[in-house]
Amino acid sequence: MSCQSGDGKVTGANAGHVPLVCAHGDGSYEIRELPGGTVLGVSPEAACPQQVLTLDEDAALVVVTDGVVEGPGLTLETGLEHAGTVAARAFVTD
After folding, report:
1. CA–CA distance from 43 to each of 17, 20, 40, 49, 86 (Å)?
2. Which of 57, 62, 53 is nearest to 90 (CA)?
3. Distance CA 73, CA 86 (A)
4. H or E stretch including 89?
């Protein structure tokens, strides 16, 4: 991930990672997926497509690992929903 100063743009790539959580100041969240690339370490020549995300001024991008959002009895979708709910609640800017 890289972020250009002050313009809300974040450039990211996905090399086998879980989706991102974008929390908003109004208490909502969304799950953001980057285009998939080759898993890190598989091939030194592999390229990962990059995507630029633009965040609103009252938004926070939350990057999590698979160990945080999935596990025994916890699906990826349920884990991402939980992470989104917690992040959005913590980020409310009322």
Report:
1. 16, 24, 8, 15, 36
2. 62
3. 19
4. helix 76-91
**What letter does residue 20 receive in the DSSP assignment?**
E
Cα distance between residue 79 and residue 13, in whole Å: 21
Number of other CB atoms surrounding residue 46 within 10 Å: 12
Closest CA to 27 of 58, 65, 56, 54: 58
Distances from the Cα of 32 to the Cα of 46, 58, 94, angstroms: 23, 16, 24
Token couple for 22? 């974008």
pTM equals: 0.78
pLDDT bin (cut points 50, 70, 90) of residue 5 is low
The Cα 14–Cα 32 span in angstroms is 11
Question: What is the rounded CA–CA span in Å between residue 40 and residue 30?
Answer: 25
Token reading at 59: 């938004």
